[in-house]
Amino acid sequence: MNALRGFTKIELGASEYSVKYDINALCSLEQELGNKSLQEIFSSESLNFSWIRSVLWAGMLHGDPKITPKKVGRMLDNHFEKGGSLEDVVQSLMGAITQVLPGSKSTEGKGATKKKKGNARKSA
Q1: pTM
Q2: What element of type H or E holds 86?
Q3: Residue 11 parent element (H or E)
Q4: Structural domain harbouring 63
């Protein structure tokens, strides 16, 4: 998937899922977590199982608008039962989110850098 367009693959158990954090997903996430701001949601104090399940759920809405937080919780249970780690899930989610948040280093400058290099080659 194209991470620069907001898609990221996340492995849960033996399955791989695509998540996308577009504006609708982020709004759904804010609502799910009590209308907190993104800054509040992504503070280190917010990290708990409700946070993990909600962030994953919001990212999965793009591919399945009818998915529920409880279904995502069962998917996480399955992941852990098959030996998956909590750390891997959190790192994947944080990686996916930081790619789309405004001001993120992983999205800003990448296209511009490649474009400048390409333009330099064309003019040389």
Answers
A1: 0.74
A2: helix 86-98
A3: strand 7-12
A4: 3-123
